[in-house]
Amino acid sequence: MLFAVQMTVNLPPGMDPEVRASTIAAEKEYAQRLQCAGEWLHLWRCAGRYSNLSVFDVVDNDRLNDILWGLPLFPYMDVTVTALARHPSAVR
Ligand SMILES: O=C(O)C[C@H]1C=CC(=O)O1
């Protein structure tokens, strides 16, 4: 099942710099592991914003939910999920 997910990160301005750096490093490792595993198909930066547009290919809604709740930055994110269906005009 394909899902488009927009994640917008809002880190608190007063966040401890070491906690901030370690959380971002953990997020990178988590995201790269899921990309290598084939569940996180696309990860694009929304230009000019601390936000990304991602596409996930997962077995079901519960798997997507588990992935999103497992994001180290999840407590600081606004997340919007859109289920994707094939467009009738798509050529690939
Ligand atoms: O930077 C972001 O958009 C937030 C998050 C998503 C993947 C990752 O490595 O960080």
What does this structure look like?
The protein has 92 residues and is α+β, with helices and mostly antiparallel strands. The protein has a domain at 1-39. 34% of the residues lie in helices and 30% in strands. It has two helices and four strands; from the N terminus they run βαββαβ. Strands 2-3-1-4 form a four-stranded antiparallel sheet. Strand 2 (40-45) and strand 3 (51-57) form a beta hairpin. It is globular and about 50 Å long. The structure holds [(2S)-5-oxo-2,5-dihydrofuran-2-yl]acetic acid (MUC). The site of [(2S)-5-oxo-2,5-dihydrofuran-2-yl]acetic acid has 8 residues, from strand 1 and helix 1.
Indicate the topology.
Elements: E1 2-9, H1 17-37, E2 40-45, E3 51-57, H2 61-70, E4 77-83
Antiparallel strand pairs: 1-3, 1-4, 2-3
This protein binds [(2S)-5-oxo-2,5-dihydrofuran-2-yl]acetic acid (MUC).
The site of [(2S)-5-oxo-2,5-dihydrofuran-2-yl]acetic acid (MUC) has 8 residues, from strand 1 and helix 1.
Descriptive labels:
single chain; four-stranded antiparallel beta sheet; 92 residues; alpha+beta; globular
